[in-house]
Amino acid sequence: MTEMLKGTLEGIVLAILATRPAYGYEITTRLREQGFSDLVEGTVYALLIRIEQRGFVDVVKVPSEKGPPRKVYSLNAQGREQLAEFWRTWNFLSERIGKLTENAEAKAKGNGEGAN
């Protein structure tokens, strides 16, 4: 599960940022609210550094009441293109996996009936 999540987490974070700008802790909180409860906060921060370096987000430092300024990430045009590519890839894989699942279930059902 962890390895599969690592491969899709970038797209998931870009999708979150597509709804509105957010800072790291807020993104982690939103992910946990969506059921990614085992997600380590450091994983999100490392990913944010990566997507910033790849030019997918714009970053603004906003004063914080507690401590240093927060980096608020917002999706830019390049990030929107990357997100669109993520969804195309996701849909392609999802369709193929769905067909594989249907075929496997049909075969298992057929074998189960024949064994009785």
Report the span from N to C terminus. Answer: 35 Å
CATH topology: Arc Repressor Mutant, subunit A
Q: What is the domain total for the residues?
A: 1
Tell me, briefly, the overall form: elongated
- Helix percentage: 55-70%
Element-by-element helix/strand order: HEHHEEH
Share of β-strand residues: 5-15%
Largest sheet, spatial ordering of strands = 1-3-2
Main sheet record: 3 strands, antiparallel
CATH classification, class level: Mainly Alpha
Query: What is the radius of gyration?
Result: 19 Å
Q: What is the level-2 CATH architecture name?
A: Orthogonal Bundle
Number of helices: 4
Residue runs with pLDDT of under 50 for 5 or more positions: none
Number of strands: 3
Mean pLDDT: 91
What does this 3D model show about the protein?
- The chain is of the alpha+beta class and 116 residues long.
- The chain has one domain (2-115): Arc Repressor Mutant, subunit A (Orthogonal Bundle).
- The chain has four helices and three strands; from the N terminus they run αβααββα.
- Strands 1-3-2 form a three-stranded antiparallel beta sheet.
- Helix 1 (2-19) crosses helix 4 and helix 2 crosses helix 3.
- The model has no long low-confidence stretch (mean pLDDT 91).
